[in-house]
Amino acid sequence: MSKASPYRGINSTSSSVSPRFRKLSIFVGLVLGLILFRFSTGWSINTEDQIISEALNNFYRLNPKSRGANPYDAAVTADRLAKFFPFDNSARRIEKNIWQMWKVPSTDPDFPHRELVNKWKNENPTYKYNLLTDEQILEVLKIRFKDTVPEVLEAFEMLPNKIIKSDFSRYLLIFLNGGVYGDIDTDLQKPVDAWFDSDRNVGFVVAVEEDINVENWQHYMTRRIQFEQWTFKAKARHPILRKLIAKIVETTFQAKKNDKLQAYYKDFKGVDRCSSVDIMEWTGPVVWTDTIYAHLNSIESPTIVDIDHQRDIVGELYGPETGEGDVISWRFFAGLRAPVMIDDVVIYPRASFREDKENNCGKYCYVNHHFGGSWKNNGKGEIKPGMEGFEGDDPNEIEQLRKSDVSKRDVIPGEPEQEAAPVKLAKRCSHPYTPY
């Protein structure tokens, strides 16, 4: 006879334990085992990797066509863009398209700069002119990226600020279609076919934005030799634009992961620099310039054609140390006064895409930018010198510095004659943007 169990209703030799009870026991045991394992290994699972993994799972779940994507890694996104939008490296000219954009169509009574737009259209009769609104751009991006590289479209829709979307839009439109882009407030000085690059096998064209050879150059520009992005040309799917788009996608997803999906600029009110991403780094001249330099230095044994090897450099040359292995750095473009070709990339001097009244435009002057700055001052437009509330750098002062023979012995305007003003250290923050 079997011995009675001390537990009421359960016999020690009985196999009547319910399956439900057994499953519950196994589940509890597994949970306890996992907890003990985590403590015993010091919680070795990397929290950041775990967050990214969970975000990727959600990303894939929402769009199965995202399989193989990793929007947190620019290299992966660049490879995917190359797969779905391969670059045609054959000898040819840049596509004859002109691209501009504004928030309303040209038929709207509030549409600005009609006379400037008409110059782009009328002086380039062999070019297809395209003016797109914000809504039209979004539709184009949905058609082209939704079923190919959807992380690009998702990044675009996550952008919190109109100016960032404007920057990203111009890169994407030229990447998809090729041609020349010009801001709505750019004044065409010479037809596009009269530009230096137009009859050459060139893939990417840009100009120096600023070249201020002073000791405290950081006070005026984010990079010593920075490239502008209010006017540029490129073949469709050019590698520079591919890398740039991938980097912007990476920055955007990193910003979302770190709860920093907010745009920062020096005159934006109520925006904490450490809980946001600097516009200049996110989609502006910083990431634009860094990507161009990175591409130029990735070319093995580049072919360089220097139209005029003389440089307009007055006094001592100031600027940061160059990186190890950087064959092409800011030093190469300092004082540039004529176009330079580096493989299929053309870099124009500063005067090419901006006003140069002294030289009456000049041989290589093609566009004048009016610098509307509608996105500045929290979207209310740029407050310029002489206007109430102006806190920025006076362009007249910048122009004077450029023309002056500035050296370490000179007094920089705005500093005491005997002792330089103390340097204010920028607030140190961790940012989602990392250069190539």
TrEMBL record:
SUPFAM superfamilies: Nucleotide-diphospho-sugar transferases (SSF53448). One of its GO terms (cellular component) is mannan polymerase complex. One of its GO terms (biological process) is protein N-linked glycosylation. Residues 405-436 are annotated as: Disordered. One of its GO terms (molecular function) is alpha-1,6-mannosyltransferase activity. Belongs to the glycosyltransferase 32 family. This is Uncharacterized protein. The lineage of its organism: Eukaryota, Fungi, Dikarya, Ascomycota, Saccharomycotina.
